[in-house]
Fold this protein.
Amino acid sequence: MNRKLKIVENIFFISGISLGLYALATTYFSNKGLPPGVCPVNNNRGLFYTSIALLLVSIIFPYLSKTFVQFKKK
């Protein structure tokens, strides 16, 4: 049970990192074609928020899994 929860935690972390890198790369490459003064982050705001949320879940998940495992033993 604990090993499965660790795998889920790692999946959240890896997906958050990869989505964040994708959003950064998309922002960088779309910035080349935009005129000066335009913010390229507005186009990818949802990707950035989603990657931050996944990384926060990967940080919070170990504490929740410990509580879940202790509750399951009782």
